[in-house]
Amino acid sequence: xxxxxxxxxxxxxxxxxxxxxxxxxxxxxxxxxxxxxxxxxxxxxxxxxxxxxxxxxxxxxxxxxxxxxxxxxxxxxxxxxxxxxxxxxxxxxxxxxxxxxxxxxxxxxxxxxxxxxxxxxxxxxxxxxxxxxxxxx
Length: 137
Prior knowledge:
This protein has a domain at 60-128: 2-Layer Sandwich (Nucleotidyltransferase, domain 5), CATH 3.30.420.270. Helix content is 37%, strand content 14%. The protein has three helices and five strands; from the N terminus they run αβββαβαβ. Strands 3-2-1-4-5 form a five-stranded mixed β-sheet. Helix 3 links the parallel strand 4 (98-102) and strand 5 (126-128).
């Protein structure tokens, strides 16, 4: 009686790359979805303190009202005119400091745009003017 042997199957030493790529893509998608959620979710409560507000003394006072008008001392400008002329005003007057006043109803982005124009004109000393907070005891 002759014993029949089965032919041996050859070993497959290759890694199945298809499933490895599938897992990598799934992980990539998970990280792409969760990363934006992790960046902007910090809750911060700023402290309230009783502080003496900055009062303009010497220098140029820049005011921003709710309608977006910008007043430099006694002159009124739109944002585009302010951006175009403020550098020349600083070069002519050479103020010791700039005091920025903004109405509390002005969007934060508008105040930052005005502040950026002031900083771009070469002024490094910019003060934010506020009214004194009344504290009830």
